[in-house]
Design brief:
The chain has helices at about 15-30, 50-60, 80-95, 110-115, 130-150, and strands at about 1-10, 40-45, 70-80, 100-105, 120. Helix 1 (about 15-30) links the parallel strand 1 (about 1-10) and strand 2. Helix 1 (about 15-30) packs parallel to helix 5 (about 130-150) and helix 3 crosses helix 5 (about 130-150). It contains five helices and five strands, in the order βαβαβαβαβα. The mean pLDDT is about 95. A five-stranded parallel β-sheet has the order 2-1-4-3-5. The protein is an alpha/beta fold. The structure holds S-adenosylmethionine. S-adenosylmethionine binds next to strand 3 and helix 5. Specifically methylates the pseudouridine at position 1915 (m3Psi1915) in 23S rRNA. It holds the Pfam family SPOUT_MTase.
Length: about 160
């Protein structure tokens, strides 16, 4: 199952980008034998600054056809890392070819796009900067792959 992290805004070179690249490379290596990955980041930019509705339209265009659509949203479901891993495995086992994980911009994800999504994951009730959410999501994907492969990375 291919994974697209669809995010609003361009991430400049810097520590966040390095971390994302590192976790997604590790995810690709670990996930290959599990039928998970590769994962890529698809950035959309609302150059006219037309607001959440315009961002939602750009995000919709970036979604692979037939993808499971999952938003990252503080109002979503708070999950443990093993539960997130099981959720990924469930979509894979259901034969889904693509998963799109959507991260909003400074104003969040337009309500219309939130209601269209199949699922929504929360990293807790606090609001995080979207650039950090990209890093956290990339790490959770790698962590999920290690959980499913029985590796020692995830310890509780
Ligand atoms: C700065 S936040 C926008 C917050 C905005 N006030 C809202 O209502 O969604 C940018 C994006 O980061 C992601 N995000 C921020 N905090 C999150 C959390 N606790 N859990 C999951 N995603 C989060 C969401 O995708 C959000 O659209």
């Amino acid at each position: 199952m291919r994974i697209s992290i669809c995010a609003v805004g361009r991430l400049r070179a810097g520590p966040e980008k390095l971390l994302i690249d590192d976790y997604l490379t590790r995810f690709e290596r670990t996930g290959r034998a599990l039928g998970l990955g590769p994962a890529r980041v698809v950035e959309v930019e609302d150059k006219k600054n037309a607001g959440m509705g315009a961002e939602a339209d750009l995000l919709r265009k970036a979604l692979p056809k037939g993808a499971v659509v999952c938003t990252l949203d503080e109002r979503g479901k708070v999950m443990s890392s093993p539960d997130f891993a099981d959720r990924l495995a469930g979509w894979r086992d259901a034969g889904r070819q693509d998963l799109a994980l959507i991260i909003g911009g400074a104003d969040g994800i337009d309500p219309s796009l939130r209601t269209e999504a199949d699922f929504s994951v929360s990293f807790g009730a606090m609001v995080w900067p979207h650039m950090l959410v990209r890093v956290m999501l990339a790490e959770q994907l790698y962590r999920a792959a290690t959980i499913l492969s029985g590796g020692p990375y995830h310890r509780v």
